[in-house]
Design brief:
48% of the residues lie in helices and 12% in strands. By secondary structure, the protein is α/β, with parallel strands linked by helices. Strands 3-4-2-1-5-6 form a six-stranded parallel beta sheet, with helices on both faces. Strand 3, helix 7 and strand 4 form a beta-alpha-beta unit. Farnesyl diphosphate binds next to helix 3, helix 5, strand 2 and helix 6.
Length: 290
């Protein structure tokens, strides 16, 4: 298992020159504590274009390069799942020309990337209310999803016409439909596992690390259920400027976090069990008798 993890880090190091910044960053990562699932809110394309007095769509076009590099770096690192927020349910509110450009870019990306996805054993999946996509976009998306479905390396989830609340509603309706078919609706009792296994991401571990670019401190209806214990990382970098260095820095920062899932950190828990309890420092002693 350990060998497997080092194998992937080796794949990243092979793409880098010793001494360059990314090589140093990659060297300082702990290959045994990589996030299994990274989710990214790719924000700031419009502002990037605005700063250059370009139309907003130029920012979306410039956002394709960072998508390619992020996918490649995650594959080389040995991350298992990468989820990218490409189009939210709310994005339909944008001008029609912008929305149409986003579909054109998606189709361009799919066509351009298929050979590389195959070569690198990457599986592409799409999450969201896909039935509302323009038919041609849906066809091309389905064909890349099918073509890569047997790949066993990195899973890339493209969130398209995606909303976190809509996903939860869809999961609950799927559970209700199944219960109706099985005739068990009268005794139906929901639990967390039932909801998790009916989400679009049912086959994936929950994200460990959620990255948002462009500095906004919002979740924007992204993976609401799944990010319950994700580590959040917000960078001021606008998405078109997001580089491999930014990604490695986010992973390094993630590795410094103490993930407690509502409990105590490992060291603190051991200390508490071994000393405070042994010394009888109970709540009553700290607070005094009532
Ligand atoms: C948010 O920036 C970004 C989007 C709504 C679209 C993301 C799309 C890409 C990165 C293009 C390529 C992606 C794929 C998968 C082919 P914004 O427009 O909200 O920026 P702003 O907040 O500065 O206005």
């Amino acid at each position: 298992m350990l060998y497997y993890k080092y194998y992937f880090m080796k794949a990243l190091l092979e793409a880098l020159q010793p001494g360059e910044k990314d090589w140093e960053l990659a060297q300082s990562l702990d290959p045994t504590r990589l996030p299994a699932h990274i989710a990214i809110i790719m924000d700031g394309n419009g502002r990037w274009a605005g700063q250059r007095r370009l139309p907003r769509v130029a920012g979306h076009k410039a956002g394709i390069g960072p998508v390619r590099q992020t996918v490649e770096t995650c594959a080389r690192l040995g991350v298992k799942v990468l989820t990218l927020y490409a189009f939210s349910i709310e994005n339909w509110k944008r001008p029609r020309a912008e929305v149409e450009t986003l579909w054109r870019l998606l189709r361009f990306y799919l066509r351009q990337e298929l050979p590389d996805l195959q070569k690198n054993d990457i599986r592409l999946q799409a999450i969201g209310r896909l039935e509302a996509l323009p038919p041609q976009v849906r066809r091309e998306l389905d064909s890349v999803v099918d073509a890569t479905s047997a790949n066993r390396g990195l899973v890339v989830n493209l969130a398209i016409n995606y909303g976190g609340r809509a996903e939860i509603v869809d999961a609950l309706n799927a559970i209700l439909d199944m219960a109706r078919i099985e005739g068990s609706i009268g005794s139906l009792k929901l639990d967390e596992e039932m909801i998790s296994t009916n989400l679009y991401t049912a086959s994936c571990p929950d994200p460990d690390l959620l990255i948002r670019t462009s500095g906004e401190m919002r979740i924007s209806n992204f993976l609401l259920w799944q990010i319950a214990y994700a580590e959040l990382y917000v960078t001021g970098t606008l998405w078109p400027d997001f580089t491999r260095t930014d990604l490695l820095q986010a992973v390094l920062e993630y590795q410094k976090r103490d993930r407690r899932y509502g409990g105590l950190s490992g060291a603190k828990a051991a200390q508490t069990n071994g000393s405070e309890e042994a010394r009888g420092e109970t709540l009553i002693e700290v607070l005094g008798p009532s």
